[in-house]
Amino acid sequence: MAGWLTLMLSMAVVGREVTREVDTFQVMELRALIGIVLIYPLVHLHGGLNAMKTAHPLRHIGRNVVHYGAQYSWFAALGLIPLAQVVSIEFTMPIWTAVLAVMFLGERMNGWKIAAIVFGLLGVWMIVRPEAGRVDPGQAWALAAAVGFGVSIVMIKALTRTESVVRILFWMLVIQAVIGAVPAYLVWQPVPTHLWGFMFAVAFCGTFSHYCMTRAMLYADATVVVPMDFLRVPATAIAGWLIYSEGIDAFTVAGASLILLGNLLNLKQAGTARVR
After folding, report:
1. Which residue range forms the structural domain that includes residue 159?
2. Residue 133, phi-psi category: left (phi > 0), alpha (psi -120 to 50), beta (remainder)
């Protein structure tokens, strides 16, 4: 999860820089194609292409259709609202993840997990502080991304029961490259030379962040792993302040404190369960 947090924070910054000049569909297609090249050494170490065969192609396709839509929404939101607000709204995601994991994966929702989610969402609310009745397009895109990512995470957790991490990641890149081929072709423009470094960074962060998240899912319930991701909210707020001069006020500090408290409660519960 530490790897996921670091890579996702980096991708928020480089993703904003790239989507200022390159269409989102093209960015996502290049991310998938470059990602396939980046992941090949792991594929080779895990038995090559023959080992990537799956008995559950429809599950992979379903998960990646949902994730592709969520990812597009996330990139779209990056260019419309402050970084901290994008990530904060995204953190309605644990609501969908927790409910779906209990309904479809048989995970248990206890008091510690509920407290972690409640404290995290209260912290997010304090940071965002949306005006009554007003949701701009950037906020709507971020909310759509949150719902999609929540569904996607539950589907990843289900896949980890039968599929290796590398196989899940391999099919994510291949399927999303196929899904995005036509939309990217329709908007394709030469990538400015000065943006290629950022483009490779988007591909690297996007590819290996999912490797880290999927590995985390192997060791803990979705309702344990996802609340830890709340730490991305204050981290992104700090990055927005340092790089783009986006303000950090007392509400942001208070919200970040609640998020940290929720994570500590959740980690305490997880640690106690393992000791028992």
Report:
1. 2-275
2. left
